[in-house]
Amino acid sequence: MKLHIEGQPLPAMPWEDRPAGCNDVMWRCSANPVIPRNLLPTSNSIFNSAVVPFGEGYAGVFRCDDTNRRMALHVGFSDDGLAWRIEPQPLRFECDNKEIGEWVYGYDPRVARIDDRWWVTWCNGYHGPTIGVAWTTDFRTFHQLENAFLPFNRNGVLFPRKINGRYAMLSRPSDNGHTPFGDIFYSESPDMEFWGRHRHVMSPAPFEASAWQCMKIGAGPIPIETDEGWLMIYHGVLRSCSGYVYSFGSALLDRDKPWRVTARCGPYLIAPRELYELVGDVPTVTFPCASLHDPATGRIAVYYGCADTVTGLAFGYIDEIIEFTKRTNIL
Ligand code: BMA
Questions:
Q1: 1, pLDDT greater than 80
Q2: Residue 161 needs a FRET pair 20 to 30 A away by CA distance; which of 40, 192, 279, 329 works?
Q3: 60: domain CATH number?
Q4: Is the CB–ligand 1 distance for residue 285 below 6 Å?
Q5: How many angstroms separate the alpha carbon of residue 45 from the centre of ligand 1?
């Protein structure tokens, strides 16, 4: 039986067929890195960014660190998902509360469409990193709400619909530094302001079972709903002799109780291998924050930060990723 995948039709999404001779579950775009570090005259690096279908094309919220090495978010637009026009001015949120709306820093955005709003979550500086929440309908004006959690937290990723009547978010409690630990949790909210009913989703894997994800993990793109459950693509970190190595893989979450993991891959989908993933401001990082998919063909394109410097794209088929997740399950 054909897998049912939720989502809006996207037949013209960025895509390349699997290269001849490639046996990998996911493969890289031949134009990688699709977003260079200096797309803006003032950018040191553009990576870990979020894109969504918008109007006739695409919109996004991009992590652009400037040449002061300050972390900022910028809005961008694209006709094809590959060539981006990124606004030179940093995104500024409108907020009723001065204390919450005061900009300190922001990074690693995600964007989820829920009904007729696009919701941005990002790692927001408020006495340390926590999860900022804002919405827009036009990618011009963004309305910022309260931070979802107490510091310290990172990798806040919304589900694309209410679950059991409430908004739902994955996150990863952390510390104020280069967090050497981290589990994924699930939280619910009636209104996007008050978050509770926190549930544990998953911990790093045992080193002996799957070393690329043995130190910390964090959710990546917005989960995709299928009749096999929610497909969650997430990053995992290994500490090697020369530092942290960020790879990504996939897990399946129960549709109604998404804190229940039904399958989790052993091998990674993508790990730092190409020069632009191995060399940059932070070497050996592949960090996914967004994906586009077309339900009818099952195609998925994952946007991922490369070496904290540029942005790459990787392609795959959702049914093959699900089959891989179940076949290599380490639970
Ligand atoms: C994490 C985040 C990411 C970054 C990664 C590797 O803690 O700060 O933005 O890509 O480290 O440096």
A1: no
A2: 329
A3: 2.115.10.20
A4: yes
A5: 13
